[in-house]
Design goal:
alpha+beta, Chitinase A, domain 3, 3 helices, globular, disordered N terminus, Transcription elongation factor GreA/GreB C-terminal domain-containing protein, DNA binding, GreA/GreB_C_sf
Length: 118
């Protein structure tokens, strides 16, 4: 098992450092990502978040908006890897869907506001 904080969105890394929480990825989480990638290949819907998509997210706690690019591998502050906790949950999500990360205090809840194909 490895920590997926590497390559995670800076805000998520900050939360991990502040709260001392770590999310470990294992075979079950990786299988979920692979299953979602296979489903995305069969469904050409532009409203689904997929690698390369630009996402507009609303943090339901702070009510702040931010943009992320969903990527196979995170290369910058505005990208999140599909293998990170946040990226894995965003992969295959639809506009209007809420994404929640457990284990960070009361959790981190985000609303997917917009998906722009990459």
């Amino acid at each position: 098992m490895t920590s997926v904080a590497v390559g995670a969105y800076p805000r998520l890394r900050a939360l991990l450092r502040q709260r001392g929480a770590w999310y470990l990825t294992g075979p079950q989480e990786l299988a979920t990502v692979i299953g979602r990638l296979e489903r995305l290949e069969r469904e050409p819907c532009a409203e689904l978040a997929r690698p390369g998509s630009r996402l507009l997210l609303l943090d339901l706690h702070s009510q702040s908006l931010f943009n992320l690019r969903l990527a196979e591998r995170s290369r910058g502050a505005d990208e999140v890897s599909i293998f990170s906790p946040l990226g894995a949950r965003l992969l295959g999500a639809r506009v209007g869907e809420q994404v929640k990360l457990d284990g960070y205090g009361s959790g981190w809840r985000l609303l997917l506001v917009q998906v722009q194909p990459g």
